[in-house]
Amino acid sequence: MKWSFRWYGEGDNIPLQYVKQIPEVTGVVGTLLNKLPGDVWEVAEINELKQTIEAEGMNLDGIESVSIHDAIKAGTDERDYYIDNYIQTIRNLAECDVKLICYSFKPIFGWLKTNLNYEDFDGSLNLVYDQSIIDNMEPSEVFSYVQKQTKGFALSGWEEERLAKFNSLLSLYDGITREKLFDNYAYFIDKVIPVCDETGVKMAIHPDDPPWEIFGFPRITKNLEDLKAILSLSDSPNHGLTLCTGSLGADPDNDLVQIIKEVGDRINFVHFRNVEFLGEQKFKECAHYSIRGNLDMYAIMEALVEVGFNGVIRPDHGRTIWGENARPGYGLYDRAIGIGYMQGLHEAILKNSK
Ligand SMILES: [Mn+2]
Q1: What angle do helix axes 79-95 and 178-199 make, rounded to 10 degrees?
Q2: Phi, psi of 285, rounded to the nearest 5 degrees
Q3: What are phi and psi of 241, to 5 degrees?
Q4: Helix (H) or strand (E) holding 129
Q5: Residue 77 C-alpha to ligand 1 middle, in angstroms?
Q6: CA distances to 202, 251, 285 from 129, in Å
Q7: In the annotation, is 244 catalytic?
Q8: Which of these CATH numbers, 3.40.1380.10, 3.60.15.10, 3.20.20.150, 3.40.50.720, describes 2-353?
Q9: Contacts of 297 (CB under 8 A, 6+ apart)
């Protein structure tokens, strides 16, 4: 496995040197926070990010996310223009030897939590989702509700620019059914994957978070059935998945081990984290350890080993602990604890299997 860590570039208050001090973490998954969905990522900008990381002796393992413009997701007349931009970004990343792109295909709300700073029994701050809060809100209220909780850190998917355009976004998705969204996705994959095959760039679609529909907007990345439908669009190994255990795992009906067994050969990237179920469509992003949540993280790691996964894997969201001033979900300390735990599981599984 290639042990990695998400890093927000110049907008991250965690120095790369600190990330490098986590044993065996040789690279980061990076981003350009100034890029909006639909923008072309220029070679010079990608190289600048890459050189910053390489100057610390680390690798740029991939990008998350290169966001998809709403015109593509909603299938408007402008989609070909934005798909061409996306293709140019793929080519530019390949030119810089960056060969992994995480992305998602969700209308309006990429990822959503109702409390970004839930204080747990031990004083740690956790991310919590509670559907009953969302049920009492209008879609237009959600952006400002989330933004108030970010402690001033930029969070991808929750940019001011998108909030400003919220009403036009809403009308863009008027009448978009699940089938229509899937067709629009298929159209995008048809155009993009041949370019990935030519350049060697791996795409990795991230599941819905949470893995159910919100405000009636359709979702197509919620469960094993969805993932199989997605993968059926192309047999190319460059058309693959981000296995985000915490996103899929928030639905108790999703069996992560079964998912890995069935589509494991198409996993291009792994986000590893646990969740604790608090009730119907209500959960907390807890510490990574199995004992702190409802997912069997040992069984998940074992299934990844069994299917031969050897790509980029990183600890997903962590708690905020030890007084750190951190971007919600992306502090240094708890993610470092998380990856140490992941590496421990991995070593134990390899040694047990001999
Ligand atoms: Mn994730």
Answers
A1: 30
A2: -85, 105
A3: -115, 150
A4: strand 125-130
A5: 31
A6: 31, 12, 9
A7: yes
A8: 3.20.20.150
A9: 245, 272, 274, 288, 289, 290, 341, 342, 345
Phi, psi of 315 (to 5 degrees): -70, 135
CA distance 163 to 143: 6
Domain boundaries defined on the chain: 2-353
How many angstroms separate the alpha carbon of residue 283 from the centre of ligand 1? 15
The residue annotated as part of the active site, out of 69, 239, 317, 346, is 317
Which pLDDT score is estimated for 284?
Answer: 96
- To the query of whether residue 317 is one of the catalytic residues in this protein, the response is yes
* pLDDT attached to residue 153: 75
Residue-wise pLDDT tens digits, 313-326:
999 999 999 999 99
Average pLDDT value for the chain = 94
From the CA of 308, how far away is ligand 1's center (Å)?
21
- Compute, in angstroms, the gap from residue 244 CA to the centroid of ligand 1: 5
Enumerate the H helices of the chain as residue ranges: 16-20, 43-54, 70-74, 79-95, 131-135, 139-147, 160-164, 166-172, 178-199, 224-231, 245-249, 256-263, 297-306, 332-352
- Of 330, 333, 341, 346, catalytic: 330
Give phi and psi for 116, each to the nearest 5.
Answer: -90, -10
Query: Which one is catalytic: 206, 239, 288, 346?
Result: 206
| Residue 330 φ then ψ, to 5° | -130, 35
* CA 90 – CA 97 distance, rounded (Å): 10
What is the pLDDT at residue 168? 81
Q: Which two tokens stand for residue 346?
A: 């991995």
- Quickly state the pLDDT bin for 280 (edges 50, 70, 90): very high
**Dist CA 343 CA 348 (whole Å):** 9
Cβ proximity of 332 and 19 under 8 Å: yes
What's the confidence (pLDDT) of residue 215?
Answer: 84
C-alpha span between 92 and 257 (Å, rounded): 36
